[in-house]
Amino acid sequence: MKKIKLVQQIVDGGVVAVLRADSAENVVRMAEQAIAGGIKIIEITMTVPFALQAIETLAKRYSSSDPSAENYAVIGSGTVLDPETARATILAGAEFVVAPCLNPETITLCNRYRVPVMPGVMTIQEIQTALELGADVVKLFPGNLYSPSMIKAIKGPLPQANVMPTGGVSLDNLGEWIKAGAVAVGIGSDLTNEAVKTGDYSTIAAKAAQYIAAYQESKQKQ
Length: 222
What we know:
The protein has 10 helices and 9 strands. The strands form 3 sheets. The protein has a 4-stranded parallel β-sheet, with helices on both faces. The chain has a 3-stranded parallel β-sheet with strand order 6-7-8, with helices on one face. The chain has helices at residues 2-13, 24-36, 51-61, 83-92, 104-112, 124-133, 149-155, 174-180, 189-198, 202-220, and strands at residues 15-19, 41-45, 74-78, 97-98, 117-118, 120-121, 138-140, 163-165, 185-187. The radius of gyration is 16 Å and the shape is globular. The protein has a single domain (2-216), classed as TIM Barrel, CATH 3.20.20. The protein is of the alpha/beta class.
């Protein structure tokens, strides 16, 4: 049942912060600011040095058990290329796993431990395979190669697919993706670019608040 609850929390959250940094300490700071700004679904990418330490730190600090709690957040892992890495992140506290591509063994591993897994896909064939393997959500990646109309095209033959575009989603087009049928969106560099350039991490909280407001407005229009 926990897996079902987590998938629902990801969909309800609507916006996933995809965080990359040059150190575990900095990605933790990014996560803290994103959460403060209202984004409660946090993806720590495995390209971050000592990413497992960052996941463990955040998993101990935040809890997914009570969405009304002050310390509520769902911490997951991203850029997971293989089942070995997926298992390591789960042991570190990750509650969902995101991959840039479709790796059947990774999906099998996550299903074994009842952890939501969102593989990266680009084609109808990959989406169908992901669904057959048991993925609840597929990540359309890189999203900047497509327009929101891609979701309508996907849902023609595969109306049961839950699609989350990642890459290229911005404040300007978030509403179009939600209107097209995205169950959630992944936000990466647009959320953190200014903070990385200036060293002022509070800008992440401000940007996160803008994304949450844009998402909520888009949902209200549906």
